[in-house]
Design brief:
The protein is an alpha+beta fold. 22% of the residues lie in helices and 30% in strands. Strands 3, 4, 5, 6, 7, 8, 9 and 10 form an eight-stranded antiparallel sheet that branches. The radius of gyration is 18 Å and the shape is globular. It starts with a helix and ends with a helix.
Length: 191
């Protein structure tokens, strides 16, 4: 019994250490030169956000990651996947004005899936509003992930030869973007 309590106490201590914000600036590795490249960080004053909302703009783009035709529909996710993996209500689906994506809402969460073919990865490191640029592996690919305007987590998986942008905004925002990473991983691996 004493060992079980010790294990629980150690787990709580470990989790408490993971919940702290790390100070500093993200550095993107330049694969060709092996050097770190610091992203430009705009000076933004903190603004309270009463409820999650989709980002007001997309990060600037300069060259597409991919631009091949795709059979994938960013609005065609299974209702169960949206409910369980993403935590949104499938009945709240709204199609984007251009018809290239959809937005769903859930309890304190907004999720958008849309094509984003005009994205050049190297430009993200110097795009105003982008921070925490990183990558994670899912579905056999390395997926870029970053925070945009200190309020949304964005992942960029490639699906059927096109870049898809998943944007997750939550009331209880965390720059660690765990919810966006888990949702992206499960959605990509489920295709």
């Amino acid at each position: 019994m004493g060992k079980k309590i010790a294990v629980v106490v150690l787990a709580v201590i470990a989790l408490a250490g993971c919940s702290k914000t790390v100070q500093g600036q993200a550095v993107v590795e330049d694969g060709w030169h092996g050097q770190g490249v610091k992203p430009a960080v705009p000076s933004l004053s903190p603004q309270p956000s009463p409820s999650p909302k989709p980002p007001s703009s997309k990060p600037p783009t300069s060259k597409p990651l991919s631009s091949t035709p795709s059979g994938f529909d960013p609005c065609g996710f299974d209702e169960i996947a949206l409910s369980i993996y993403v935590g949104v209500d499938p009945e709240t689906k709204k199609t984007a004005a251009g018809g290239d994506g959809c937005t769903w809402t859930g309890d304190g969460r907004v999720f958008t899936a849309a094509f984003n073919d005009g994205l050049y990865m190297e430009s993200l490191a110097t795009t105003p509003g982008v921070s925490g640029l990183t990558e994670f592996d899912a579905g056999g690919q390395s997926i870029p992930m970053f925070v945009f305007e200190h309020e949304s987590c964005i992942t960029l998986p490639e699906i059927d030869g096109r870049t898809v942008q998943f944007t997750m905004t939550e009331e209880d925002f965390s720059a660690f973007c765990i919810g966006a990473q888990v949702a992206t991983t499960l959605l990509v691996e489920d295709l």
